[in-house]
Design a protein that fits this description.
The protein is α+β, with helices and mostly antiparallel strands. The chain contains twelve helices and nine strands. The strands form three sheets. The protein has a four-stranded antiparallel β-sheet with strand order 1-2-4-3. Strand 7 and strand 8 form a beta hairpin. Helix 5 packs parallel to helix 9, helix 5 crosses helix 11 and helix 9 packs antiparallel against helix 10. The longest helix has 30 residues. The protein is globular. The two termini are 15 Å apart.
Length: 364
């Protein structure tokens, strides 16, 4: 609630009429409003901006590398094509609002990218790799020797183990157990991570999915939401992108080839060992998604979630149980799951969890 009030108040203070505000916009991590402001050149033209405030109390499922997304975007101006501009008005941090439609609207799962968008994605991959780990210009989390791809993945695995799985076992351990998720899946991945090929560390966006790629009125692709960016193994960007985009097999292969050519054309060795290592990184992304999606689905049914109005029972919608089943099935092998539950069994697991943990559900 505090983030919602602060975001709206910050935006309202910059416009002559609150009716100009558009929002709150969709987004898990932030409360966001968009609005027009006069251009600085005195032309009378207007440009669209957005301000956003992090929502309090949200669970964090990903490592935060840079302390300020705005500082990162400021450092990347002129170095990465088609990214938001940052500014500040009356002490309120602003991001330029990219008018257009997300790639999720123009190219839903199962549809191939256009040649234009595939080419622009390749340009983005190349620009990211052109920025070395020591050339970003702002401080990051550090702690991993540059080029040590094995240590980079081990750090991500450690974050998921300690800050996601173990941290939430007291609340969600029974739910994970009923879904058939064993506890040693991340241990298996640690062994595979040790064999990764060293690659030069570069800037990594870390969250390249359909809703973070916006198609403007001219048909050009813009990249937004850089808060999960890191300095690390460039192959992680490809793995994350393929995992989140859910391309058909041939389209995924096509995108991987574009990534390989783009990064090698800019920084030799950036794709070293990629065909052998990509499956390992994909396994990590699939296991990570189990904890993220299972817990978020439970949170969505908590106070204020869709199944809780006026005493309605907390039941997982059929579509959501089907999605959770897909997530579990994708991670079944790396997790060592003995079975993948049916959609009905998944719905029952959530119902049982809410019934046996009413005080926990209410506090989620």
């Amino acid at each position: 609630m505090a983030a919602a009030v602060a975001a709206r108040a910050g935006a309202a203070a910059l416009v002559p009429d609150e009716s100009l505000l558009v929002g709150p916009l969709n987004g898990y991590h932030h409360e966001t409003y968009a609005f027009p402001l006069p251009a600085d050149d005195g032309s009378g033209a207007q440009t669209w901006w957005k301000c956003r405030y992090p929502r309090a109390g949200l669970l964090r499922f990903d490592l935060r590398w840079f302390t300020s997304e705005q500082a990162l975007l400021a450092a990347l101006q002129g170095r990465v094509t088609r990214i938001p501009v940052v500014a500040e008005r009356a002490g309120v941090p602003l991001y330029s609002f990219i008018e257009g439609r997300t790639l999720g609207e123009t190219c839903p799962p199962g549809a191939p990218l256009t040649e234009r968008h595939l080419g622009q994605l390749g340009v983005l991959f190349g620009e990211l790799v052109s920025i070395g780990a020591d050339g970003i210009g702002i401080d990051g989390a550090g702690g991993v020797r540059a080029g040590d791809s094995a240590a980079f993945l081990s750090r991500l695995i450690g974050f998921t183990e300690h800050h996601v799985r173990r941290r939430h076992l007291p609340r969600y351990g029974a739910l994970l157990a009923e879904l058939g998720v064993p506890g040693g899946g991340l241990d298996r991945l640690r062994g595979e991570a040790r064999g990764l090929t060293p690659r030069p560390f570069t800037l990594v966006h870390g969250d390249l999915h359909r809703e973070n790629l916006v198609v403007d009125a001219r048909g050009d692709l813009w990249t937004i939401d850089w808060e999960l960016a890191m300095a690390g193994d460039p192959l992680y960007d490809l793995a994350t992108h393929l995992h989140l985009m859910r391309y058909p097999r041939r389209e995924g292969e096509r995108v991987a080839e574009v990534w390989r050519d783009a990064v090698e054309g800019v920084r030799s060795g950036s794709s070293a060992g990629w065909e052998r290592d990509l499956p390992v990184l994909l396994k990590y992304k699939r296991v990570q998604s189990v904890y993220t999606d299972v817990i978020r689905a439970a949170l969505a049914l908590g106070p204020g979630g869709p199944g809780t109005d006026k005493g309605a029972e907390r039941r997982l919608p059929a579509r959501e149980s089907g999605r959770i089943r897909e997530v579990l099935a994708a991670a079944a092998v790396p997790l060592g799951m003995a079975r993948v539950p049916t959609s009905r069994q998944i719905r029952t697991a959530y119902e049982n969890w809410f019934e046996s943990h009413p005080h926990i559900a209410a506090a989620s």
